[in-house]
């Protein structure tokens, strides 16, 4: 490899990395958490004021009673084959709202012991969705139409960063790949870690970059293709698979849901149905869609595949997104989605993606730190004084503020889910406020205290807020729990992982504090930086005069 | 090899004209190639809505690839000229091939 190419791509790598790194950090940290969106949802959802769900066999009676009491539910409703804390009712329907922001309210019904209808507003927590949107919009609070193009631009920079990073490392690949020079030279160690993470998770990152570009720009891509490729007839492309629906007999009765599930099992063995969705057409005909999963295959949705079925015969009518039953191109497209979502292969892959996501966040964090250290070396060479530039100080504070602020913000807003339930009307709005307040306050704090001290403080904040997750669950076990609740079962894992995370943040906090106090004083990580800066505030000459006090 | 050595060393200094060529023409080229794939790739234009989606996905890797590697051009001028030529060629193939199909030539 020509050295000028390597040098050029080193510059490019540094700059695209610095521009996109912090947004990517948030996307990856939040994205890693979305691998457990369902447990998070369960952890955060308050118990509903409803009797136990009726058995699947009794659902027709439930539907009839619900329809009599709430005629508006007949237009569109869901039967939850699998119920749980996040889906406490067997039958639910949405009220108000729109596609992008979700419904204004969700209601569910049950039958009590005497067979009388119970109706309750369901309190499924919006916090899982909040974290997911944070992931999709790389942490930006704007509307979808504004956030997504920015996310797309970040993804393009991310793609350049991957290619340039690969080009840089190729010449020394064999030498450096397995090298982890732990020890005195901290920068060397960080670089080795950065390189090792980058190389070993490269396929994962290629998948994420290419799919994120599509997620950001698919509308624009289709619009452009509609003009230059399909001659304005994109619609004809979409309708080419459609088979005309059978003629509708208004006398036909829908099959009971239990029967639908049984017939689905024979048509699609291995596919576990979780939800049946019903929607009435203008002529009164019910259309059906089932959601479910099959761990042996990748799926088109983040946690589910979709199947269209005939409500009256139980026949599967649209298997385009039925995991394992797709053919050719559709299967290929589903594999792109599945590779992004990590929804193939069950729990091991889920955990793998969780760890790869966290490793990705760390990759971007370490990239920023390396940028800072590289600039220190360059300045030192140029001016002969060991010093760090103003930009390094700003970037150092920004890096710890944004990265640790997003971690602490997510933990805080997650904890708040349990404390706010029942006291706050607009939970989604409250989660957003809490997150961004903690996030922005963290950035402010990092600038006030400098990267070194501020970083240690914020790591303690991360440890504390993350520890509140299991602590909140523990408080719910106390006799006077103030209305808190806790769920048993697999959701305890979330408390466990949070406890481990809190421990790790605390350990990092101690290390960072030590470095701030005992490490090199000319580093942005030093606690003594502020004294030096104050001395440099009235510099005798321009540039890099901040002296080390000793 | 000797030509490569004779050429002036690449630097990151003239990144803007190169990157803008990669961004604009990289997208145009990806669009044209996706069109070629849609019309003349396996299965042809009507091979199910799944293929329509694959055609769209194809833009991403091509665009990202051109955008990442456009810095290897000697200059911004070279990037615009080479990528512009490639894009024009791809569109000529797309429209020419389409004309041959629709006019019954094939």
Description:
- The complex is a heterodimer of chains A (550) and B (106).
- With 550 residues, chain A is an alpha+beta fold.
- Chain A is built from 16 helices and eight strands.
- Chain A has helices at 3-34, 37-44, 59-69, 127-136, 144-169, 173-177, 186-200, 202-228, 234-238, 257-267, 328-341, 347-383, 390-420, 427-475, 492-518, 529-536; strands at residues 76-80, 91-95, 105-111, 117-121, 272-280, 286-293, 305-309, 316-321.
- Chain A has an eight-stranded antiparallel beta sheet.
- In chain A, α1 crosses α12.
- Chain A starts with a helix and ends in a 14-residue tail after the last helix.
- The N and C termini of chain B lie far apart (43 Å).
- Chain B has one domain.
- Chain B has helices spanning 2-6, 15-40, 49-69, 76-102.
- Chain B has 106 residues and is an all-alpha fold.
- Chain B has four helices and no strands.
- Chain B is elongated, with a radius of gyration of 17 Å.
- At the A-B interface, α1, α5, α8, α9 and α11 of A face α2 and α3 of B.
Continuous helix count of chain A? 16
H/I helix tally of chain B: 4
pLDDT < 50 runs, ≥5 residues of chain B: 1-6
From N to C, what is the helix and strand string of chain A? HHHEEEEHHHHHHHEEEEHHHHHH
What is the string of helix and strand elements of chain B?
HHHH
- Return residue spans of chain A where pLDDT drops below 50 for at least 5 consecutive residues: 534-550
* Largest sheet: number of strands, sense, barrel closure of chain B: none
Integer tally of domains of chain B: 1
- The whole-number mean of residue pLDDT values of chain A reads 87
- Approximately what portion of the residues of chain A adopt beta-strand conformation? 5-15%
Question: Can you give the helix content of chain B as a percent range?
Answer: over 70%
Average pLDDT of chain B works out at: 90
Described by the principal axes of the CA atoms, the overall outline of chain B is elongated
If you compute it from the alpha carbons, what radius of gyration of chain B comes out, rounded to the nearest whole angstrom?
Answer: 17 Å
SS elements, strand count of chain B: 0
| Span of the ends, CA to CA of chain A | 44 Å
Multimeric organization: heterodimer
What best-fitting shape of chain A do the alpha-carbon axes yield?
Answer: globular
Q: What fraction of the residues of chain B are assigned to beta strands by DSSP? A: under 5%
State the helicity of chain A in percent bands.
55-70%
């Amino acid at each position: 490899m020509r050295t000028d190419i390597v040098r050029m791509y080193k510059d490019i790598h540094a700059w695209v990395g610095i521009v996109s790194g912090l947004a990517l950090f948030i996307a990856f940290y939040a994205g890693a958490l979305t691998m457990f969106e369902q447990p998070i949802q369960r952890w955060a959802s308050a118990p509903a004021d409803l009797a136990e769900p009726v058995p699947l066999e009794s659902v027709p009676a439930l539907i009839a009673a619900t329809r009599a009491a709430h005629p508006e539910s007949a237009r569109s409703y869901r039967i939850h084959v699998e119920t749980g804390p996040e889906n406490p009712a067997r039958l639910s329907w949405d009220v108000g709202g729109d596609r992008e922001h979700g419904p204004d309210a969700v209601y569910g019904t049950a039958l009590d012991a005497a067979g009388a209808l119970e109706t309750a507003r369901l309190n499924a927590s919006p916090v899982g969705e909040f974290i997911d949107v944070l992931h999709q919009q790389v942490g930006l609070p704007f509307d979808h139409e504004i956030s997504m193009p920015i996310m797309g631009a970040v993804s393009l920079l991310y793609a350049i960063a991957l290619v340039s990073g690969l080009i840089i490392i190729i010449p020394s690949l064999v030498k450096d790949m397995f090298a982890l020079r732990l020890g005195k030279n901290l920068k060397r160690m960080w670089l080795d870690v950065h390189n090792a993470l980058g190389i070993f998770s490269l396929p994962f990152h290629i998948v994420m970059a290419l799919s994120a570009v599509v997620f950001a720009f698919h509308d624009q891509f289709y619009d452009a293709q509609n003009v230059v490729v399909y001659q304005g007839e994109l619609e004809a492309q979409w309708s080419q698979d459609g088979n005309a629906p059978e003629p509708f007999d208004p006398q036909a009765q829908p099959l009971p849901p239990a029967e639908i599930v049984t017939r689905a099992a024979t048509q699609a063995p291995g596919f576990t149905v979780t939800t049946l969705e019903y929607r009435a057409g203008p002529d009164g005909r019910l259309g059906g869609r089932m959601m479910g999963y099959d761990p042996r295959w990748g799926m088109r949705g983040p946690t589910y595949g979709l199947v269209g079925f005939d409500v009256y015969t139980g026949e599967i009518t649209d298997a385009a997104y039925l995991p394992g039953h797709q053919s050719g191109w559709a299967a290929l497209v589903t594999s792109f989605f599945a590779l992004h979502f990590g929804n193939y292969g069950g729990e091991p892959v889920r955990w793998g993606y969780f760890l790869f996501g966290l490793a990705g966040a760390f990759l971007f964090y370490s990239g920023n730190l390396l940028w800072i250290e590289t600039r220190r070396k360059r300045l030192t060479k140029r001016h002969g004084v060991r010093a760090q530039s103003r930009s390094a100080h700003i970037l150092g504070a920004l890096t710890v503020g944004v990265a640790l602020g997003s971690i602490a913000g997510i933990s805080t807003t997650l904890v708040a889910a349990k404390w706010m339930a029942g006291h706050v009307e607009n939970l989604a709005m409250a989660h957003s406020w809490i997150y961004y307040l903690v996030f922005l306050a963290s950035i402010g704090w990092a600038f006030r205290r400098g990267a070194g001290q501020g970083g240690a403080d914020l790591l303690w904040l991360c440890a504390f807020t993350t520890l509140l997750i299991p602590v909140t669950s523990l408080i719910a076990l106390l006799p006077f729990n103030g209305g808190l609740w806790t769920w048993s079962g697999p959701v305890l894992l979330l408390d466990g992982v949070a406890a481990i995370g809190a421990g790790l943040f605390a350990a990092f906090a101690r290390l960072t504090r030590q470095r701030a106090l005992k490490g090199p004083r000319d580093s942005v990580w030093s606690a003594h930086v502020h004294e030096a800066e104050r001395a440099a505030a009235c510099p005798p000459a321009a540039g890099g005069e901040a002296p080390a006090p000793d | 090899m000797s030509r490569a050595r004779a050429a002036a060393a690449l630097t990151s200094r003239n990144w803007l004209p190169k990157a803008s060529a990669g961004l604009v023409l990289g997208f145009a080229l990806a669009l044209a190639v996706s069109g070629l794939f849609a019309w003349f790739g396996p299965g042809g234009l009507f091979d199910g809505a799944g293929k329509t989606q694959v055609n769209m996905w194809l833009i991403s890797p091509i665009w990202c690839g051109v955008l990442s590697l456009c810095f290897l051009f000697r200059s911004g001028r070279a990037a615009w000229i080479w990528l512009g030529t490639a894009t024009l060629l791809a569109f000529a193939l797309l429209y020419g091939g389409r004309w041959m199909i629709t006019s019954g030539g094939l």
